Amino acid sequence: MSPGRLFCFGLGYTAGRLAAALRARGWEVAGTVRDPARAAAWRAEGVAAWAFDRGRPLARPAEALAGATHVLSSVPPAGDGAGPPAPGEDPEEPAADPVLAVHAADLVRAHVTGPGLRWVGYLSSTGVYGDHGGAWVAAERTAPRPSGPRGVRRLAAEEAWRALGARHGLPVHVFRLAGIYGPGRSALDAARAGAARRVRREGLETSRVHVDDAVDALLASIARPCPGAVYDLADDLPAPPDEVVAEACALLGVAAPPVVDWEQAGLSPLARSFYADRRRVDNAPTKAALGWTPRHPDFRAGLRALLASEGAGAGGPP
Is the Cβ–Cβ distance between 148 and 270 less than 8 Å? Predict the structure, then answer.
């Protein structure tokens, strides 16, 4: 995999760790941030950071995208953490992807006039599958049927990216991520902060993926592009969320909180949405397609690895 230039729309948690991994391999990386403090942190690391937000496009998109060989977007749709809606935009509608709404033509132009984009990735969510009563799902055999507005918006964004690729020859790849955890964002952190809750819904087993395993899958895809592909990024063992919390507490040697039924837990609408859909994500097709094997095959291995590696650094600006 020869070094290239990656441009990230959204230098967030997963994209930031991919950026660090590629820079360690000699790549040039640039990307967008919303927070000026984070922009300064990235620039101190040698990464060109550009301001971008919903309603605030790139100031000089041609300059920002110049020389890009790879593009990744981790910017979520409106209403899913992407910032406030632009003037005149209805956040309840499955609106155009925030990036494509203002920079679709710029991406096509960069592909046509630059060195040619060799890979374009979009980070989506397994939430697009909706509720399957606990059955196994996989992109190769399961049609998305989102059950809530967040999933509807995610699927609309996926389709917008794939349509752009089909129309203009952009090598678009979609990655449906299960619940992401890793350094600073795990049940260990919640347990230490006294914020862990053991909420249980009978028959619910959720899938998750360690952030470094997600990055490994992205690296594998970059090394072996397959335009139009859709991948599911999840570990090998779906499990009830309350078991994950109990394991974290056991590792820390603290008492686990009592189990609370999800109907009596007083969950916010957003939190409740994570318990509403029952499905298990089958990662076998993605493993076969990418030659990818998660280093952390289940939540127990992942939590133990996090505990063992604490203090080793986060691999890039937070």
Answer: no
Q: CA-to-CA distance for 316 and 118, rounded, in angstroms?
A: 25
Those residues with Cβ within 8 angstroms of residue 63's Cβ, 6 or more apart along the chain or in another chain: none
What letter represents residue 249's amino acid? C
Residue 191: Cβ within 10 Å count: 23
Q: Quick: pLDDT tens for 163-210.
A: 999 999 999 999 999 999 999 999 999 999 999 999 999 999 999 999
Question: Would strands 136-137 and 172-177 be described as parallel, antiparallel, or unpaired?
Answer: unpaired
pTM over 0.85: yes
Domains of the chain: 5-181+208-235+280-295 (3.40.50.720)
**CA-CA distance, 281 to 238, in Å (whole number)?**
7
| Two structure tokens written together for 58 | 């790139």
* Residue 33: other Cβ atoms inside 10 A: 24
Q: With beta carbons less than 8 A apart as the criterion, state whether 128 and 151 touch.
A: yes
Residues ≥6 apart with Cβ < 8 Å to 101: 86, 95
3-state secondary structure of 78: coil
